[in-house]
Design brief:
Helix content is 71%, strand content 2%. Helix 5 (154-181) runs antiparallel to helix 6 (188-223). It is elongated. By secondary structure, the protein is mainly alpha-helical. It has 6 helices and 2 strands, in the order H-H-H-H-E-E-H-H. It has helices at residues 23-42, 47-81, 91-111, 120-139, 154-181, 188-223, and strands at 145-146, 149-150. Residues 10-21 have low confidence and may be disordered.
Length: 224
């Protein structure tokens, strides 16, 4: 999990950005709400509608999470390979917030129809998952300094963000493995999700390797 617990979603900034991504978080959350609401309306506000809505929201949040994992490293790799390209800064941070918002919609789609007879396991899942998402969102937020003391040290933020990333990566990967090996009707989503989680790791490892190689070249030039 070194790639997940590295410069989790921060990393170096990509220069020459002129793209505003502020509406991205709202658009991601709205997409999750639209999926859930559409499924509920299509099934006549029945329990099956909420079940379908939560399933669609879970799959939707997966793709947002994959984008949050891979976007920053992919942008930095592209910037190193093609220096003249102008790529978005802080895109990963916006995607992290969008993932946390869409994951909150997913948890709401699980909680609302079962609020009266929610089982202990489901309650724990909602509370723990919501807590991890909240920690992730806060850790991705650049907090201002209070006087000379920083609210949360950068090292602590990186550890929290990396730990949250590992948790959600394991959730998606383990569920995909369970569905691939378990008895079920064929569903291409689980094979695709597992492949994308591996791709995200490879992209992040590639970013780390290029960054290490660049630092080694600078150290060699400085020493000479």
């Amino acid at each position: 999990m070194v790639a997940l617990d590295s410069t989790a979603f921060f990393g170096s900034k990509v220069p020459r950005l002129h793209l505003t991504v502020a509406p991205l978080v709202g658009a991601i959350a709205l997409g999750a709400l639209t999926l859930v609401f559409g499924a509920v309306v299509a099934r006549g506000f029945s329990e099956n509608g909420f079940r379908l809505g939560s399933l669609l929201a879970w799959r939707y949040t997966f793709f947002v999470f994959f984008a949050a994992l891979a976007a920053g490293p992919a942008c930095r790799i592209a910037a190193r390979l093609f220096p003249k390209m102008t790529l978005p800064q802080r895109l990963s941070r916006k995607l992290v917030w969008g993932f946390c918002a869409s994951y909150g919609v997913y948890l709401a789609s699980v909680l609302i129809p079962n609020v009266i007879r929610l089982s202990a396991g489901a309650t724990l899942m909602v509370l723990f998952g919501g807590g991890v998402a909240l920690v992730m969102a806060v850790a991705a937020t650049p907090l201002k300094r209070l006087g000379k003391a920083q609210v949360i040290a950068d090292e602590v933020r990186r550890v929290l963000l990396g730990t949250a990333a590992i948790y959600f990566w394991m959730c998606y990967a383990v569920m995909a493995l369970a569905r691939i090996s378990g008895p079920h009707r064929p569903d291409v989503f689980y094979g695709l999700s597992l492949c994308l989680m591996v791709v995200a790791l490879l992209v992040r490892f590639g970013d780390r390797w290029l960054a290490h190689h660049a630092r080694a070249e600078v150290a060699t030039v400085t020493a000479s």
